[in-house]
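Final report, results section. Input specification for complex C-07:
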Amino acid sequence: MTAPTLPARVRIHEVGPRDGLQNESTVIPVEVKAEFIRRLVDAGLDTVEATSFVHPKWVPQLADAEELFPQVRELPARLPVLVPNERGLARALDLGARRVAVFASVTESFARANLNRTVAESLAMFAPVVARANAEGLAVRGYLSMCFGDPWEGEVPVSQVVEVAVRLRELGCGELSLGDTIGVATPGRVAEVLTALNAAGLPTDGLAVHFHDTYGQALANTLAALQHGVTTVDASAGGLGGCPFARSATGNLATEDLLWMLRGLGIETGVDLDRLVATSRWLADRLGRPSPSRTVTALSHKES
Ligand code: HMG
Ligand code: MG
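Structure output:
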């Protein structure tokens, strides 16, 4: 049997400052966040999701977006931000954001918990956001949460993923990121969802994957996605993360764990693993607890 072809290069979409820090119980000073983003860019990450322009009462951890974004916007990287609605987009545009992401749920329960809307109402909320962002020349990513399982609804039918993905593309989203928000996916299921999306007219080159590592499947799932032709993978430095509106979500796939695997497979990323490990250790000191990343732990204890 010949080995499935793997891409020569993968773009890492770093979500630590947003998906990671949105879930921290401690208040992190804005200077630390700005320094974190600077260090991530210095390590070679060219796409770093910086923050969210959501309701500050819903996500108090990112309530400093207005203060943070101007401190990082000149960095030589793509710095997408999350915007749920027109208010969020206006805030992002005022500060010069050039890339935004809307975030849909595939399930009704999470749409209600995360956006205070039904799925249909949330898509209606995104429509003018995506239209205006496109008209202003911004790149628009569309997230889909709960693509594999939902804490309230259990296993999620593939048809629901396809339906929301097609709608987001019709609204004008470019890249779509498939979220395994609570980390329940397994590799066969990943291949099944990607195949169904392709069959619905969504080619793999417009699809990214976003795995949380709750059941330790994130790397296996990533490999399945790479074998399917996916070349954009979301990850969070040090394995930070979770979701305040889905308590069963643990951290994202750690960027360092991803890099270790990609390096072993000879896949280029442009990211310096040692610098990234140093950054995650630096942040862990500020958060007062060690990084959950296996690779950060292993490289921190390596004999020198
Ligand atoms: P709502 O309470 O229904 O809002 O929340 P509303 O539209 O009824 O407005 C209520 C008030 O909020 C109004 O103020 C608005 O102006 C204000 P008032 O008139 O009462 O004074 N408001 C805002 N203020 C600032 N910025 C805004 C904004 N919007 C309204 N953007 C809303 C609806 C969508 C705003 C709320 O549910 C929300 O902010 N949700 C965000 C939740 C969130 O950030 N979740 C985490 C990110 S998603 C995720 O982590 C998953 C992902 O990682 C992928 C995966 O793993 O699956 C992406
Ligand atoms: Mg997430």
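The mean pLDDT is 95. The pocket of 3-hydroxy-3-methylglutaryl-coenzyme A (ligand 1) is lined by residues 19, 22, 52-55, 58-59, 82, 84-85, 87-88, 91, 103, 114-116, 143, 145, 179, 181, 210, 243, 245 (CB under 6 Å). This concludes the modelling results for the funded period.
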